[in-house]
Design brief:
This protein has 13 helices and twelve strands. By secondary structure, it is α/β, with parallel strands linked by helices. The chain has two domains: 117 residues, NAD(P)-binding Rossmann-like Domain (Rossmann fold, 3-Layer(aba) Sandwich); 183 residues, NAD(P)-binding Rossmann-like Domain (Rossmann fold). The strands form two sheets. Strands 8-7-6-9-10-11-12 form a seven-stranded parallel beta sheet, sandwiched between helices. A five-stranded parallel beta sheet has the order 2-1-3-4-5. Strand 1, helix 1 and strand 2 form a beta-alpha-beta unit. Helix 5 crosses helix 7. The longest helix has 21 residues. The mean pLDDT is 96.
């Protein structure tokens, strides 16, 4: 008899077909939004769950779902998982690293360019019918080539952005990370390690690519924004909560920094009303990994983790090491 799994959000039909070869699949193809209570009810008796970073797996849910053995996130980030609680309950957690690195780095650089060159602002101006004549300073933004690119968080995606900046645009790349990269990787990225304060003070364009954790909550707030150049831009493709959105909106409104590009938000899909009012911020709905090939690769890797754990007793990309076995 096949074990049951829940696919908590809509996903590619071909991925559901692969899963159905190994499991009894309960799929939310209508992409309904569930309350925690509804999610828990749907998980009753399930051996595994396929999640997409929005479904919270914590101690109360695990206590209510004693048959659960594995949670496969279709995302690199996993701040929806309480790993300590999952490990204590003997539930395996997995994510989807590597397969979205280059696509996300592409998008991070696209958002940087749109922010620096005021692309969204100028398009809204044109579409509203306000373009009546050309002017020398019309939507004059900041140069990217030859400028200083600052990266906070220098994992795979940060390194991809660094390579694009240094090799493609001749940018001077500086970075700050919890631990310094080895010399060979720094050379490949043409990046120089600096302290956080120097990063904030020196960057013309600051890109945030660090994982969310309690330690990184509001790592960019009012005090940090004050250190940045008034001509600087800030781009967040990491996670909501890394930036204090209220402080950022105030800094943008006051001209303490020039502009921001945001793909993630605190409390998303809600976006703080103060950000929505501003012209000097580019807003996108958490789409940094959104190319068809990459999203399909992410879905397949999440499915591979479920299948491998069931058939081989191990997952491809585990996040913890619980005592539980596949069966």
């Amino acid at each position: 008899m096949k074990p049951g799994i829940l696919v908590a959000r809509a996903v590619f039909p071909e991925v559901l077909g692969r899963l159905a070869q190994h499991f009894e699949v309960d799929a939310n193809q209508l992409d309904e939004s569930w309350s925690p209570e509804q999610f828990s009810a749907r998980l009753q008796g399930k051996w595994g769950v396929f999640t997409m970073a929005g479904e919270r797996i914590d101690a109360p849910l695990l206590a209510a779902c004693p048959d659960l053995k594995i949670c496969a996130n279709m995302a690199v980030g996993y701040n929806n998982f309480d790993l300590n609680a999952m490990t204590a309950a003997g539930v395996l957690a997995t994510n989807t690293p590597d397969v979205l690195t280059e696509t996300t780095a592409d998008f991070g650089f696209a958002l940087l360019m749109a922010t620096a060159r005021r692309i969204s602002e100028s398009e809204h101006f044109l579409r509203s019918g306000r373009w009546k004549k050309w002017r020398y300073d019309m939507f004059a933004g900041a140069d990217i080539h030859g400028s200083t690119l600052g990266i906070l968080g220098m994992g795979r995606i940060g390194q991809g952005i660094a390579r694009r900046g240094a090799l493609g645009f001749g940018m001077k790349v500086i970075y700050h990370n919890r631990s310094r990269l080895d010399a060979a990787t720094e050379a490949q990225c043409q990046a120089r390690y600096v302290g956080k304060e120097e990063l904030l003070q020196s960057a013309d364009h600051l890109v945030l690519v660090l994982p969310y954790s309690p330690a990184s909550h509001h790592v960019i707030g009012g005090a940090e924004l004050v250190l940045m150049k008034p001509t600087a831009t800030l781009v967040n493709i990491a996670r909501g909560g890394i930036v204090d959105d209220v402080a950022l909106a105030a800094a943008l409104a006051a001209g303490r920094i020039a502009a921001a590009g945001l793909d993630v938000f605190e409390g998303e899909p809600a976006v703080h009303a103060d950000l929505m009012k501003l012209h000097n911020v580019v807003l996108t709905p958490h789409i940094a990994s959104a190319s068809v090939p990459t999203r399909l690769a992410m879905a397949n890797l999440a499915a591979d983790n479920l299948i491998a754990f069931r058939t081989e007793g191990r997952a491809l990309t585990p996040l913890n090491a619980p005592a539980a076995r596949s069966v």
